[in-house]
Amino acid sequence: MTRRSALGGLLTAGAGAAARAGEWPERSVAWIVPFPAGGGSDLFARPIAAHVADRLGQTMMIDNRSGAGGTLGTAIAARAAADGYTVLVGDTGLTYAPTIYPRAGFDFDRDFAPISAFARVPYVLVVNPVRLDVASLAGFIAAAKQRPGAIDVGSAGLGTVTHLAIGLFEGRAGVQLNHVPYRGGAPMLQDLLAGQIAAAFVLVSTVAGYVKSGKLRALAVASRRREALLPDVPTAHEAGLADFRMTTWFGLFAPSRTPDVALDRLHGAVQEALASEGVKRLWREQGAKVELESRADFARFVARETERWSRIAKAANVQIE
User: Fold this and answer.
1) What is the per-residue pLDDT across 92-115, written as a single tens digit (0 to 9) for each?
2) Per residue in 118-134, pLDDT tens?
3) Helices marked H in 85-225
4) Is the pTM of this model over 0.70?
5) Whether 33 contacts 62, CB under 8 Å
6) HEC readout, 231-267
7) Are 42 and 247 a contacting pair, CB within 8 Å?
8) I need a labelling partner for 143 at 20 to 30 A (CA). Which of 132, 270, 294, 316 fits?
9) What is the pLDDT of residues 4-18, one digit of tens each?
10) Quick one: 232 exposed, middle or buried, by C-beta within 10 A (0-12, 13-18, 19+)?
């Protein structure tokens, strides 16, 4: 995989890959990432954008527009011209954002056309063994039932996927936990390592090293299958909690009514990137997976995720002004 970047987040095309005159794209394409640089969306978008730039012969400009839980940049993308020259790097949280942000400024299902998934990354429930010495998911659930509301479980913030995951877990396991929200995943992880909180749902790639060193203990991965980065950790289903899955995903979207020629060319270029050895290697290092799929398959997946997470958000009764 070839990666080229310049000032301002520009990902430029190879010299020999100029687009033919009169064929989309005839100029640069803005990729709005509604979160800060260096975050998950940004991490997965950049190598894909670099490949797409080489394939389509035009600059792909990463534009980080963070704020309001991702809704600020997403609303900007929703209002952009539907001409193929502005796209959105979306993720799981944006599907239910209008449910918890009354003034989000967009309807994800109505305002966006799904193009392709980038990556799907599972979460794992981990504990600080000094703060909470349990060895299994069954032990964690038993401890929570013995002390309702006493186990501190951190999240990356109000309304985040990790926040909703706590509510989902409570419902499935029949327990009550003490939710401790943070201003992002990094400070939450710092407090977890320091023993300020007992547990958290964290991306597998983020904590694999800490689990292997013994600083954290992994109880269950919230995916269908065991994860290569933590092969000895059972799935939640294997550990006795049936149908508990929590995976965050990232993908590319365009404003609704964007011409099919642009959607199809972007989809094809992204699929080529995902099939490349360079991207496969990067994804393995991050514990990420993705299946090559059609635009229609991805659209059906997003529709299911939107319905599922919006339902969870309503049940959690989360409202953020």
Assistant:
1) 999 999 889 888 999 998 999 999
2) 999 999 999 999 999 99
3) 92-100, 108-111, 137-146, 161-173, 185-194, 204-213
4) yes
5) yes
6) CCCCECCCCCCCCCCCEEEEEEEEECCCCHHHHHHHH
7) no
8) 316
9) 333 345 565 543 343
10) exposed
The beta-carbon contacts of 99-103 under 8 Å, at least 24 apart in sequence, are: 99/310, 99/313, 99/314, 99/318, 100/159, 100/313, 100/318, 100/319, 100/320, 101/68, 101/69, 101/71, 101/159, 101/320, 102/319, 102/321, 103/321
Chain CA centroid to CA 25, Å? 27
Query: CB 92: neighbour CB atoms within 10 A?
Result: 23
Helices 260-275 and 277-285 meet at what angle, rounded to 10? Answer: 70
CB contact at 8 A, 310 and 59? no
Tokens at 218, concatenated: 């992994």
And the tokens for 177? 């936990």
Neighbours of 243 (CB within 10 A): 7
The tally of CA atoms less than 13 A away on the side-chain side of residue 52 is: 32
Q: In the numeric block, which tokens belong to residue 274?
A: 């995902």
Whether 117 contacts 273, CB under 8 Å: no
